[in-house]
Automatic annotation (TrEMBL):
The active site is at D31 (proton acceptor), D171 (proton donor). Binds 1 divalent metal cation per subunit. NCBIfam families: PRK05581.1-4, rpe. InterPro entries: Aldolase_TIM, Ribul_P_3_epim, Ribul_P_3_epim-like, RibuloseP-bd_barrel. The keyword Isomerase applies. This is Ribulose-phosphate 3-epimerase. Pathway: Carbohydrate degradation. It is an enzyme of class 5 (isomerase). Its EC number is 5.1.3.1. Substrate binds at S6, H62, G138, F139, G140, G141, D171, G172, G173, G193, S194. Keywords: Carbohydrate metabolism, Isomerase, Metal-binding. It comes from Cellulomonas wangleii.
C-alpha cells in the first residue's frame, strides 16, 4: 500500500518545505495541468525539474495536459520516477508507454471517471500503473465519486487474473472516510491532497491513511 500525497494542496510558495513535510510517504504526487485538458493551470517542466532535485521522495507526475504524446517524455527527462498520461489525451498509449519506459521511468495511464478501463485490460503488460480518477480531474478538495469503485474492482480482478504487477492508483477524494472501501475494492496506491495538507500534522495523517489502507475494516 503506497501513500502519495498530492502537492496540489501544498503551499506553492513553499514547495520544498512542503515536500519535506511528507517525507514519510512513498512518492510525491505532482499534478501538471495545462488549462486545456482541465480548467486549471499549475506547474510545468522547469518547476518539476527543480522539484526532482530537492524532493526527499520520488516524483509521481500526473499529467493533465493535452497532446500527452508530445509532452510526457519530457517529464521523464525532467527527473520523474513515474509519468502518468491521460488515456483521453494520447493518440497512441502503447507507443507512449513504451517510450516512457525506454526513458527509465514507470509508465501509467489515467482514466477520467467516465472513461472505461476495459480497453486497457488486455494491455496490462504495457503499463506499470492504471490511475482510476475518483473525481473529475482539475481541482483538489472535491467529493469522491462512489461509482468509480466498480472500475477499481474490475481493474483489480483483471490484474490478479493476469498475474500482472500493475499498480492500481486512485486520485480524488481520498480521506480517512473513503480509503478503507477504496482499498477493499483493490487499489494499492492512494493519492491524497487536501486530506494530507489540510491536516494539522501531515506526517500523522499519512500514517493514519496508511493504517486504514492496510487494515481496511468491513465498515465504512
Ligand atoms: C485532481 C488531482 C488530484 C488532487 C486530489 O485533479 O489530480 O491529485 O490533488 O486532491 P484531493 O485529494 O483533495 O481530492
Ligand atoms: Zn493527481
Amino acid at each position: 500500500m503506497l501513500i502519495n500525497p498530492s502537492i496540489l494542496s501544498a503551499d506553492f510558495a513553499n514547495l520544498e518545505r512542503d515536500l519535506q513535510a511528507i517525507a514519510s510517504a512513498d512518492h510525491a504526487h505532482v499534478d501538471v495541468m495545462d488549462q486545456h485538458f482541465v480548467p486549471n493551470l499549475t506547474i510545468g517542466l522547469p518547476v518539476v525539474r527543480r522539484l526532482a532535485q530537492v524532493s526527499p521522495l520520488p516524483l509521481d507526475v500526473h499529467l493533465m495536459v493535452e497532446d500527452a504524446d508530445r509532452w510526457a517524455p519530457q517529464y521523464a527527462e525532467a527527473g520523474a520516477a513515474s509519468v502518468t498520461f491521460h488515456a483521453e489525451a494520447t493518440q497512441a498509449p502503447v507507443r507512449l508507454a513504451r517510450e516512457l519506459r525506454a526513458g527509465g521511468v514507470r509508465a501509467a495511464v489515467a482514466l477520467r471517471p467516465a472513461t472505461p478501463v476495459e480497453p486497457f485490460l488486455d494491455l496490462l503488460a504495457e503499463v506499470d500503473m492504471i490511475l482510476v480518477m475518483t473525481v473529475e480531474p482539475g481541482f483538489g478538495g472535491q467529493a469522491f465519486i462512489e461509482g468509480t469503485l466498480a472500475k477499481v474492482r474490475r481493474a483489480r480482478a483483471a490484474v490478479d487474473a493476469a498475474g500482472a504487477a500493475t499498480w492500481i492508483q486512485v486520485d480524488g477524494g481520498v480521506s480517512r472516510d473513503t480509503i478503507g472501501r477504496i482499498a477493499r475494492a483493490g487499489a494499492n496506491v492512494f493519492v491524497a491532497g487536501s486530506a494530507v495538507y489540510g491536516a494539522a500534522d501531515p506526517a500523522q495523517e499519512i500514517a493514519a491513511l496508511r493504517a486504514l489502507a492496510e487494515r481496511p475494516t468491513t465498515q465504512a
